[in-house]
Amino acid sequence: MAHNEAVDVVLVGAGIMSATLAVLLKELDPGLKLEVVELMDSGAAESSNPWNNAGTGHAGLCELNYTPQAADGSIDIKKAVHINTQFEVSKQFWAYLTKKGTFGSSKSFISPVPHLSFVQGDKGVSFLKKRFETLSQHHAFSDMHYTEDRSEMAEWMPLMMPGRPLDEKNRRDPRDERHRRQLRRPDQSVAQPPDQFAGCPGQILQARHRPQA
Q1: Which helix (H) or strand (E) holds 152?
Q2: I need a labelling partner for 208 at 20 to 30 A (CA). Which of 5, 92, 111, 172 fits?
Q3: Average pLDDT, the chain
Q4: Of 60, 179, 204, which Cα lies nearest the Cα of 113?
Q5: Contact present, 146 and 171 (Cβ < 8 Å)
Q6: pLDDT, tens digit, for every residue of 157-211?
Q7: Helices H, strands E: what count in the chain?
């Protein structure tokens, strides 16, 4: 566009955030004049580049830093709930665009991914168990589960469990994967299997079940 042409909105950076915001604004007001400015030679060349990020949509389910523990031992889940709500809004927006035909099939760009997080030591074990007990009381996290069953863990971590001493402490917390999705990248057409997210036994583990398609 000409440098002297007036626009309503200027978005700095041609990454996923600017692209999403631009689409949202145009859906709300098709008459808006938008301009996206980018320093790099192409769009999505930095943080949005597939090699520079995990390609996952965060929903506050397995990210332990979203649920800090207070001095009295209680778990603060406000940030996890907030992040989860934000991702639900994102999914609603994508569903709207998919239904409208903007994206075609949602399977072309998003897919469910099992995920495991883990901690080590007695302090970590205590934290994760308390986290599970607190989060699972909220409707957004009600599908969480907690287990110490070694055979069940072996199903989730077939590459990690064989050969582990029987006296190791093995705990994990599988939970529903409905709220987390992995955005497909050009170099990654399928979701990673759960064992690639797993930690070593002898650690507490937290995971989510694969969601319904």
Answers
A1: helix 150-156
A2: 92
A3: 75
A4: 179
A5: yes
A6: 788 778 877 666 555 554 444 433 333 333 322 222 333 333 323 333 333 333 3
A7: 4, 8
CA proximity to 147, closest of 103, 204, 65, 83: 204
- Cα 178 to chain centroid, rounded: 10
Rounded to an integer, what distance in angstroms lies between the CA atom of residue 168 and that of residue 202? 5
In eight-state DSSP terms, residue 57 is E
Other C-beta atoms within 10 Å of 195: how many?
15
**pLDDT score, position 184:** 34
Residue 48's contacts (CB-CB under 8 Å, 6 or more residues apart) are: 15, 16, 17
Helix axes 16-28, 78-100, angle to 10 degrees: 60
Quote the pTM value.
0.68
80: closest CA among 144, 124, 123? 144
For 109, the token pair is 């760009």
Interstrand relation of 34-37 and 110-112 (parallel, antiparallel or unpaired): unpaired
Length of the chain: 213
* Rama region for 117: left / alpha / beta (φ>0; ψ in -120 to 50; rest): beta
The pLDDT assigned to 173 comes to 55
What pLDDT shows up at residue 183? Answer: 36
Give the distance from CA 99 to its chain's centroid: 23
**pLDDT tens digits along 28-37:** 999 999 999 9
Tokens encoding 82 = 């907030």
